[in-house]
Design goal:
It is a single chain. Helices cover 8% and strands 40% of the residues. By secondary structure, the chain is mostly beta strands. The strands form 6 sheets. Strands 19-23-22-21-20 form a 5-stranded mixed beta sheet, with no helix packed on it. The longest helix is centred in the first third of the chain and has 13 residues. The protein is globular and about 65 Å long. It starts with a helix and ends with a helix.
């Protein structure tokens, strides 16, 4: 009788469902990333961490992202966080930052959390999160950035403040003497005259007193510990790069404009071969477009536009995705992963993740479409 029971238990265990994680198992049992598929965490639940970033800390990778509902009008819960030892097997750690239940709070439930990025400050011992915030009931009119802080990479993060960027401050590469004189005027968009005024800072001056708009964004920490906030500004027409204070909780007042009127968003940065490389996208709503690659000798210097870095199937549409973040693989030299989101506007929760290795060839940067690959063996 005991043998019968044991056989029944064993049979039952064999019938338990096996849930795929962000990886699949090949014949050699090597965990692999499969871009564009539904990714599950170790509990079998669909990973819900869109537009985010990955930070290595305390021996683990932490993945932060937007919580998104299956139906677009449903409010977000906040910013989710997952942890992993290997970039493929992810454990849900909960909400790193929760939407507030208090009416009138900046992050009141019903607001929009987008593009959360987290960096660690060794001077203060704090984990600092910045994100694009739109206030409840205001659509995309607020165009704010927001900051939160935590003692732990998994949170909980405490909300600090939100607002626009560098109110009353002129960019380093635009003087008032050479700036537009038509900041208060309404002009027909996309005319040569309008484009000229945009390049001369027409919208920069328009927003000067209240601060610069900040939408799609990322963070970057340089080798010297200086941190930068890179964001789409001026009605998404111009990218700006703003230096953060030493505690990473505010802006220092130093910032530049790059590619004014270029209509760039979704910036993602890395440093390689002594240069700064940025992948960004055009502005076509939820629809994919061709990626842009940019390079500079210094963060606050001159940036040059290069051809599309994507190669392979659907490269002209960024693999049907949009740039988001470039993470550095811990313990490996010149090993980077470009993170893209394949947005599904009908169900943002079902938006897919496209993670692909950045390929570095003789000082050049590219990202090729690979149907499946393993971080443990790629480099």
């Amino acid at each position: 009788m005991i043998n019968v029971i044991l056989k029944s238990v064993a049979a039952g265990l064999m019938m338990l469902p096996v849930f795929p994680c962000a990886s699949v198992m090949s014949e050699s049992a090597t965990p692999k990333i499969v871009p564009g598929e539904v990714w599950k965490d170790v509990a079998g639940d669909t990973i819900n961490a869109h537009g985010g970033c990955v930070l290595f800390s305390e021996g683990k990778y932490y993945w932060y992202g937007e919580h998104r509902a299956a139906v677009r009008p449903v409010p977000q819960e906040g910013v989710t966080v997952y942890s992993s030892p290997n970039l493929v097997d992810w454990t849900y750690e909960g909400l790193a930052l929760k939407a507030s239940e208090k009416a009138g709070d900046d992050i009141e439930k019903g607001c929009i959390f987008e593009r959360p990025k987290v960096i660690y400050n060794p001077r203060t011992g704090k984990y600092v999160m910045w994100f694009h915030l739109e206030l409840k009931g205001q659509g995309y009119g607020a165009a704010r950035c927001a900051v939160a802080v935590s003692d732990s990479p998994a949170g909980p993060f405490s909300f600090v403040k939100s607002g626009r960027v560098n109110a009353g401050k002129m960019p380093l590469n635009l003087s008032k003497e050479n700036a537009s004189v038509r900041a208060g005027e309404k002009m027909e968009w996309w005319t040569p005259e309008w484009r000229s005024e945009i390049e001369k800072g027409m919208f920069t001056l328009r927003d000067l007193d209240g601060g610069q708009m900040s939408r799609d964004m990322t963070l970057f920490v340089d080798d010297d510990g200086k941190a930068y906030h890179i964001y789409s500004s001026e009605d998404n027409l111009t990218l700006q790069i703003a230096e953060l204070t030493d505690d990473y909780l505010d802006h220092s007042g130093r910032y530049i404009r790059i590619f004014p009127g270029g209509h760039n968003e979704a910036p993602a940065l890395m440093k390689y071969d002594g240069k700064y490389w940025m992948i960004a996208s055009g502005c076509t709503g939820w629809e994919p477009n061709e990626a842009r690659l940019m390079v500079a000798e210094s963060m606050m210097g001159e940036w040059t536009r290069l051809p599309n870095p994507c190669v392979g199937e659907n490269a002209e549409k960024t693999f049907l995705g949009q740039s988001n973040y470039i993470l550095k693989v811990e313990g490996k030299e010149n090993a980077y992963i470009a993170m893209f989101d394949r947005w599904n506007p009908k169900s943002l929760m079902d938006s897919r993740y496209l993670w692909l290795p950045v390929q570095l060839n003789g000082g050049a940067v590219s990202v090729a479409w690979i149907p499946e690959w393993s971080p443990s063996t790629w480099w």
